[in-house]
Specification:
InterPro entries: Hypoxia_induced_domain, RCF1. With about 130 residues, the protein is an all-alpha fold. About 65% of the residues lie in helices and about 0% in strands. The mean pLDDT is about 75.
């Protein structure tokens, strides 16, 4: 019986210590600090995030536009599909959109490999 009372007493003390205000002198609690602004990337206010990403990898917006074009064309052709079942039409539309995306990704990888390994580098940049 006394061990239950002691255990309950310890629990209430622990809860009381946690519910109080956090003291910086307590070595058991880690110090929380905000990160400095030096780690944050700087953004040009006149340029949108999408345009920056499009300059870094130009085939991503091309893939997005191609996928949207394939879906739009598929929806336009939906009214004149004839005797073709709806599921077959949707599968063809999905395959076309995925093919365009995979093609854009492949071209993007080839382009980035060209820029990294084969593009001529300016020797003046390396001699800073």
């Amino acid at each position: 019986m006394t061990s239950e009372v002691e255990t309950e007493s310890k629990r209430s003390q622990n809860i009381a210590s946690l519910s109080g205000s956090f003291d910086r002198s307590n070595p058991l609690l880690p110090a929380v600090t905000m990160s400095s602004n030096q780690d944050m990337p700087t953004y040009d206010e006149n340029e949108s995030k999408f345009m920056r990403k499009a300059k870094e990898s130009p085939f991503v917006p091309i893939g997005m536009a191609g996928c949207a074009a394939v879906v739009a064309f598929g929806l336009w052709r939906l009214k004149s599909r004839g005797d073709t079942k709806m599921s077959v039409h949707l599968i063809h539309m999905r395959v076309g959109a995925q093919g365009f995306i995979v093609g854009a990704m492949t071209l993007g990888v080839i382009y980035s490999m060209y820029k990294q390994y084969l593009a001529p580098t300016d020797p003046g940049k390396d001699s800073k």
